Amino acid sequence: MRILAVGAHPDDLEFFCGGTLAKYAKSGNEIFMSYLCTGCYGSRDTEPAKLSEIRAQEARNSAKIIGATVFGPISNDLDLFSNRESRIKVVDIIRQAKPDIIITHSTNDYMADHVATGQIVFDAAFTATLPLFKTDYPAHEKIMPIYSMDTSIGVGFDPELYIDITDYFETKKKMLLSHESQHKWIAGHHQTDAVGIIEKMSSFRGLQCGVKYAEAFKRVKVWGRIFPESLLK
Ligand SMILES: [Zn+2]
């Protein structure tokens, strides 16, 4: 299977679905990690252009840990809007990755880039399937399921699906720690530390489903993206 995960900033996927990506990479699936914004404002003292370069490298370092392919960015932070230009760019990410499933932000998350990413990915996922919608890449005609990953600190997110990441928590942590530029920033701007966040969130989601560490998801429920399941495992 081919899994495309699209976050807003270079470290978002590590927070919300890094363990899941690590798990599915290990079992032989092809993983594509995309972020749409440069992360250029995630600092108090580094120039935005310089910070964008640093963060692009950090994203590559993290993806390398699980052998994922990286796409992005397409915009500076807070310049990302759901418009024709961004939709086409994400259509081309989807057409290159040719995913069987997509994971992205929930549209009720805490800041504009996360909300915009969730919306643009949803819009682009349909657009990417249309052969007559011409871009640099041929259409990916599969209408694939889309999953929302947890919101920041799980606020307003009622999960439908839990992935046991107990054996992959250390990998998730290593991926997150690849984003070295962010440790001080998150500690200062959000008054908490990044590893503390994933430790608490993964433990809490794990507690809900009876394992040590888990990540939580919801399906985007629209026509064509819902598939029957069994009550019996
Ligand atoms: Zn973010």
Q: How many strands appear in the DSSP assignment?
A: 7
N-to-C order of helices and strands: EHEHEHEHEEHHHE
Task: List all distinct small molecules, including ions and cofactors, that are bound in this structure.
Answer: zinc ion
Q: Calculate the mean pLDDT score and round it.
A: 96
- What is the number of helical segments per DSSP (H or I, 4+ residues)? 7
What is CATH's topology name? Answer: Rossmann fold
Number of domains: 1
The CATH homologous superfamily is termed LmbE-like
Largest sheet: 7 strands, mixed
Kindly provide the name of the CATH class: Alpha Beta
Low-pLDDT segments: none
Give the termini separation.
21 Å
Radius of gyration: 17 Å
Indicate the CATH architecture. Answer: 3-Layer(aba) Sandwich
Which class best fits the helix and strand makeup?
A: alpha/beta
Shape descriptor: globular
Beta content: 5-15%
- Strand ordering within the main sheet: 3-2-1-4-5-7-6
Explain the overall architecture.
By secondary structure, the chain is of the alpha/beta class. The protein has a single domain, classed as LmbE-like (Rossmann fold), CATH 3.40.50.10320. The chain is built from seven helices and seven strands; from the N terminus they run βαβαβαβαββαααβ. α1 links the parallel β1 and β2. It is globular and about 50 Å long. 46% of the residues are buried. The mean pLDDT is 96. The site of zinc ion has 4 residues, from loops.
